[in-house]
């Protein structure tokens, strides 16, 4: 079996924020390979560098040292090639724009022709099961639907890589379960590569092919777990011994990272 292409490759990646008089080591010596079609979750307590890592991939922050490539390019080149879609923690939809106009905004900025925009919006809404809600305003949608709309906005460029920063963190568990299932289906259907930040152990284990356990002060990777779970995952897979075993390993990794501080 040939190995899938490298999508994100980090070697001894470090990022130190020079804030005030105390520099913050947000990422220290991160080594990670994300390959095409992977679903990679980043889990760890606040301040361990999860958002920073996504921001480096997206060229919103610059590394201090080490190497990082995105689709074999520098993050800057990847950004210019529109290599990824970014989903933020809050839906960040403009309340005065309808759902379709929200999804259109980045396409307008990038200068897509109007017919192309329409097709991309329709396809993206279909992927997140929001067809029929084009003309609604964000406030007319539930929290889960708003978050799906913001995923549709990230999907509209049809980039192969999706960066998702705690997209379901603010939602209740039932809605989150449903969106987890939907996201897995979307991932299986589109063969996209997903980098997903979460605080939730079950969410990380349920979704991922690879789980990156991180820890703060300094921000670093403490464990990388390749999941043996099959790609087809009904929700009740969460009660199987295999699932619980991975969850246990994640929990141990988080605990080990924590004791480091004391
Ligand atoms: P996480 O997403 O895991 O909660 P972040 O990547 O947001 O962590 O932050 C990692 C560390 O870097 C934290 O200590 C945070 O306070 C610090 N940090 C994040 N952004 C900045 C910034 N722009 N300037 C200074 N420090 C920052
Ligand atoms: Mg964060």
Automatic annotation (TrEMBL):
InterPro entries noted in UniProt:
AAA+_ATPase, ABC_transporter-like_ATP-bd, ABC_transporter-like_CS, ABC_transporter_ATP-bind, P-loop_NTPase
Does the keyword section mention Transport?
yes
What does the record give under GO molecular function? ATP binding; ATP hydrolysis activity
Q: Does the keyword ATP-binding apply?
A: yes
Q: For the ABC transporter domain, which residue ranges apply? A: 8-237
Recorded hits in SUPFAM superfamilies, A to Z, give:
P-loop containing nucleoside triphosphate hydrolases
Task: Enumerate the UniProt keywords alphabetically.
Answer: ATP-binding, Nucleotide-binding, Transport
Q: Superkingdom of this entry's organism? A: Bacteria
Which PANTHER family does the annotation name?
Answer: ALIPHATIC SULFONATES IMPORT ATP-BINDING PROTEIN SSUB, TAURINE IMPORT ATP-BINDING PROTEIN-RELATED
Write out the similarity annotation.
Belongs to the ABC transporter superfamily.
Q: What is this protein called?
A: ABC transporter domain-containing protein
Instruction: Tell me the lineage of the source organism.
Output: Bacteria, Pseudomonadati, Pseudomonadota, Alphaproteobacteria, Hyphomicrobiales
């Amino acid at each position: 079996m040939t190995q899938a292409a490298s999508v994100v490759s980090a070697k001894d990646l470090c990022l130190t924020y020079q804030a005030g008089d105390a520099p913050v080591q947000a990422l220290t010596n991160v080594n990670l390979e994300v390959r095409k079609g992977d679903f990679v979750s980043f889990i760890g307590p606040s301040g361990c560098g999860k958002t920073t890592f996504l921001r480096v991939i997206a060229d919103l922050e610059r590394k201090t040292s080490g190497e990082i490539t995105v689709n074999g390019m520098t993050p800057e080149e990847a950004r210019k090639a529109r290599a990824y879609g970014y989903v933020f923690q809050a839906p960040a939809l403009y309340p005065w724009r309808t759902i379709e106009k929200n999804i259109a905004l980045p396409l307008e900025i990038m200068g897509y022709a109007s017919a192309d925009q329409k097709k991309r919006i329709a396809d993206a809404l279909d992927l997140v099961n929001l067809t029929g809600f084009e003309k609604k305003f964000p406030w007319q949608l539930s929290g889960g639907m708003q978050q799906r709309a913001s995923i549709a906005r990230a999907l509209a460029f049809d980039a192969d890589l999706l960066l998702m920063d705690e997209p379901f963190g603010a939602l209740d568990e039932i809605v989150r379960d449903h969106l987890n299932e939907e996201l897995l289906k979307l991932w299986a259907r589109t063969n996209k590569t997903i980098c997903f930040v979460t605080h939730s152990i079950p969410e990380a284990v349920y979704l991922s092919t690879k789980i990156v356990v991180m820890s703060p002060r300094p921000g670093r990777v403490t464990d990388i777990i390749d999941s043996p779970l099959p790609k087809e995952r009904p929700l009740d897979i969460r009660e199987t011994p295999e699932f619980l075993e991975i969850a246990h390993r994640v929990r141990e990794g988080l605990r080990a990272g924590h004791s480091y501080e004391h």
